[in-house]
Amino acid sequence: KATCCRKKEERRARANDREYNEKFQYASNCIKTSKYNILTFLPVNLFEQFQEVANTYFLFLLILQLIPQVSSLSWFTTIVPLVLVLAITAVKDATDDYFRHKSDDQVNNRQSQVLIDGSLQQEQWMNVRVGDIIKLENNQFVAADLLLLSSSEPHGLCYIETAELDGETNMKVRQAIPVTSELGDISRLAKFDGEVVCEPPNNKLDKFSGTLHWKGSKFPLSNQNTLLRGCVLRNTEWCFGLVVFAGPDTKLMQNSGRTKFKRTSIDRLMNTLVLWIFGFLVCMGVILAIGNAIWEHEVGTRFQVYLPWDEAVDSAFFSGFLSFWSYIIILNTVVPISLYVSVEVIRLGHSYFINWDRKMFCAKRQTPAEARTTTLNEELGQVEYVFSDKTGTLTQNIMVFNKCSISGRSYGDVFDVLGHRAELGERLQPVDFSFNPLADKKFLFWDPTLLEAVKMGDPHTHEFFRLLSLCHTVMSEEKNEGELYYKAQSPDEGALVTAARNFGFVFRSRTPKTITVHEMGTAVTYQLLAILDFNNIRKRMSVIVRNPEGRIRLYCKGADTILLDRLRPSANELLNTTADHLNEYAGEGLRTLVLAYKDLDEEYYEEWAQRRLQASLAPDSREDRLASVYEEVENDMVVRPRGLGRGRGRGPGLGRVCDLRPPPPAHPPPAAHIGVGISGQEGIQAVLASDYSFSQFKFLQRLLLVHGRWSYLRMCKFLCYFFYKNFAFTMVHFWFGFFCGFSAQTVYDQYFITLYNIVYTSLPVLAMGVFDQDVPEQRSMEHPKLYEPGQLNLLFNKREFFVCIAQGIYTSVLMFFIPYGVFAEAAQDNGAQLADYQSFAVTVATSLVIVVSVQIGLDTGYWTAINHFFIWGSLAAYFAILFAMHSDGLFSMFPNQFRFVGNAQSTLAQPAVWLTIALTTVVCILPVLAFRFLKLSLKPDLSDTVRYSQLVRKKRAQHRCARRPGRGSSRRSGYAFAHQEGFGELIMSGKNMRLSSLALAGFAPRSGSGWIESLRRKRSDSPGSPGGGREGRGAVLPRHCPSGFS
């Protein structure tokens, strides 16, 4: 009886019955990753942006400015920067969402063949429903999570590629359960009415538990019977599947949730500092408000006739209250809104530099480095620990059968006639496998004793390779006679089965019930009774087979830490020997694998098989029950007694491959502060889960020491300068408050206030934040200690912040009081008084722009054309806008907005003004220069030393080039340049010329020292020496020394 009531923990799907399945209101196959549409974009995006505290703060300031009794600034001084920031963010979000819409439409509109009313019809993916039967053809993507029903391959097998799911590029095998594998024609599939009862949607890619109810029987379903959305059908002409999960319920979509948002340590510090600045802003507002109340009470009453209070103001206290909010508006630029936008722009630039770095580009795979996030670049410069899995991360995931230990004897090393281990190389000949016509010609092994043992019929060696040829899930394909191709789920299995193949135990084919192996040229077919598959918890896999003689045997392979505890105690001596081999292999960086077997009697196996069947049909906790049943049989394993004594033997032996890769590599990156993925043989899952990716592990050095260090340096310099320039700009208002009766008046023209952080000072600091360097990239790689300041957080911390603030306050004091003192006594050329408010405002503003421009010039360590253009262009823009704003034309058009008519022209025409600007600039900058010169002289840091050595090296190179006589082109000159000053005199003197590498390392970095320098001076000073008195080239000899000195 159909019902829509079901257990919360299970899902039901009936084939070819949409009416039944619709009662459960399952999700459709339409996916949606976009966040907005045309109607919701503006309100939703603005709502999201105002979740940011900074945006809400500036919105609050804008509202305050709309109150006439509070605001002394025009509303556009706040709304222009705010709208600009909101617009930039909205455009970015809209662009991202547009591409998400395009991607969704592209996927949802893909075509799929769906069985409807007894015939196949083309349907868009979005119209596929749970319970539909879908036909897939070769190289097609799987539209939804399917239960495999049948395929064009024998026994319902099919091959899939799961790179989009788990990152593995090797093909995997899936198999339909036998009861449905014969449903290959449309008519029989149209009559199929089986019902699947399974677990609810989840994100576990490697697990599926369900039961098929059909014709009154129950059939267990596992992950091996499913095809997941995102997979691609390969090497299979066609297959049919039943939709179990669709759309957002598929495992692919369940795994594509929002990733954890990561913040850098600088972000966290900046948030704290911004809160402190807000507190400082409130304190300044309170001080000035108190000053306003006192002034109004003591002095302001005398001016009531000329400057009466507003109607709403009835006391000095209330006047001070309004003054507090007015000063909050005026002084808010200590935390300008452009700070956050500028930080994002700089980070974006750093990300592009990583993406464009040709030295991190892998030509072999045509794979560039990729910054998959723009928020963590400076964090790359503060890494203290690097954790790397022993995987393909280091070895490119290329697996090679290297060594093995069988019955206490180690194979794989080659020894010379003296008994010394020989280095593998061109002089050694690999083992000749020509006796085996099915051998893989690409396989290389160097120790001939192992092949001799196989040929001599050693039973332990035969059992070793028999286990390797049987205990696996590899599929074989024979395109031409004798040309075998293996399709393995992991490189480990491929390497081990290939090794067994070359040593005469050739895995030839398999069916769901049999495995055929050619053992030393003889075809042997084993009955496959059970596969106890590998998983990350068990760390082992087993097969149970019946050989042609009828004997049942379990073969197992797995991690040594797991399998050793499951062997029957015997021969301790053998165990100790094998353990020594294990440690030896591990010391060489190889991956160990233990092999063992166990004979089972018929009665025990039948009882165990029944328990396994019951566990596989369990409606819940199926995985745990199966693990318990597997644990029972995978214990007390033994080996053949011959040659093993009473050892706790480790089965036929120990298989060793050079892999270094543990299971799923894609989960650590999101949990780390910074996740780095290597796009190698193992696919793209680790890349998709990472923050940065590249194709070779060696690129990590450049990512950290060059890009990471530079990003940290640039961001720190940017923040220090940004806070400095804004405190220098804003604190002038604070000092002016004491001279204007605390009336919340501004020093600057309102247009200067609006444009200061947007036009006049934004681009130079952006250029420094994007392009600056302290030392060239080569020196960053040569001197890893340069990375240390980032690890110790030395370049931007609370101390550095207060230093920048102190410098900004110092600059503001000089910026206000020097012009104030000068204007108190100065006069114009015509004798008129120079001291008027508008002239003072222009002088202070001009001094400020020049001082901060000079300061950023001093802070810039690496000049580019862009730096020059932005700094000089910003200065030019300031004067151009200043004269335009003070022109007669704008005043005539907008008399109420442009009141400083003609002021710039008249003020800047006075010599006293330019002298004042020059004096202010010198007094502001001179202490900074003095401090930096003292620091360089008394306590230089490593970057200063490296820069100095670079400068000295460059000057010496220029000097040598300048003094080198001209030469014509000649082939013979190559000999002269290739050789340095000889050691003939030293050799003839009988002195010992042999130096240790430590001694060489001591003088190698110096241009001339030790016995070489002494010899050079001796030869140069000799009267008859050619070139006497000239600089010799002996100092560069260490470049030709061994061990890579430079």
Walkthrough of the structure:
By secondary structure, the chain is of the alpha+beta class. Among the domains are: 11-29 and 128-254, Distorted Sandwich (Calcium-transporting ATPase, cytoplasmic transduction domain A); 398-414 and 426-657, Calcium-transporting ATPase, cytoplasmic domain N (3-Layer(aba) Sandwich); 700-937, no CATH class. The protein has a 9-stranded antiparallel beta sheet, sandwiched between helices. The chain has a 6-stranded antiparallel beta sheet with strand order 3-2-4-13-5-11. A 4-stranded antiparallel beta sheet has the order 1-8-9-10. A hairpin with a 5-residue loop joins strand 22 and strand 23 (552-558). Helix 3 crosses helix 4, helix 10 (338-356) runs parallel beside helix 23 and helix 17 runs antiparallel to helix 18 (622-633). The protein starts with 10 loop residues before the first strand and ends in a 25-residue tail after the last helix.
